[in-house]
Amino acid sequence: MMLRRMAAGAALALAAAVKVGAAGAAQVGVHDPVMAKEGKTYYVFSTGPGITFYSSQDMRHWRPEGRVFAGEPAWAKQAAPSFDGHIWAPDVTKHDGKYYLYYSVSGFGKITSGIGVTVNKTLDPRSPDYKWEDQGMVIQSVPGRDLWNAIDPNVIEDEAGNGWMAFGSFWTGLKLFKLNADWTKPAEPQQWHTIARRERPAFTPDENGGPAEIEAPFIFRKNGYYYLFASWGLCCQREKSTYHVVVGRSRTLTGPYVDKDGKDMAAGGGSLVIKGNRDWIGLGHNSAYTIDGRDLLVLHAYETADKYQQKLKILDIQWDAAGWPVVDPAQLNSYQSVLVPPGK
User: Fold this and answer.
1) CATH of domain 72-328
2) Over the stretch 132-160, which tens digit does the pLDDT of each residue have?
3) Reported pTM
């Protein structure tokens, strides 16, 4: 997380969203992408100034739509005094007829972080009903009080219609808690669970995230299981990037999530889904969906031939005989997003 955020500064401004690949085609440059479909239009939201987002009619040609926040959330500097305008790791979901967009603000390499949520009737910026209404902070992490980091939210609905938020990065791992009825605060009495973590050596200073390289939970329900995807390794380190995606699953939302060997992700377990290769040295911070009858893995990847610039990737998820997700690394090359200039 701490190292990943080095690349989440000015390089993610909207003007820098155009990334030109080896073939010379303008592609979509994103970090931490999430996707939704409204009507016939797909939308991708990404880390960036005010949260950058794009629209598409075919999941391949993407038009930049600007930013969600014209300025910054009113509460951001309260939670993160060094907040610089870049909002991290959004998650988008539909609930009670509205779209909920969760997001993170933070100080670089610190637990001075908070997760907020903004709500809209529509994702279409051309609709007369389009208006994001910020609901404020959902949770906050405070140095000296907490040993977890309030970033990287993902919200899922359980079988009973209750909302749950997974979140977290480094420190003591990924957490899960139940949301209240309007999905804007923790439910009371609060119910918290540790769903995944990696080893944090003894005597690591509390202010240090440590080498416990785990972040970006995303929970996907399929075939009677909840699948917990997470990103391990270091992001945004150019040729030294080690970012990759792992998974575990559980019959119940609160876990335990176990990998293919039966190891609990809360004890360091996690089975590989996809990792970097020669062409795409590091990839991760995925989301997962069933859209138009296809199961999809959405993530960012760093292209070696383009000086390790981040690119949007949308990959098909297949399922093996034991019910585990499988993706084809060849799709990292075959899927090429196309950035459509504004006005076209």
Assistant:
1) 2.115.10.20
2) 999 999 999 999 999 999 999 999 999 99
3) 0.93
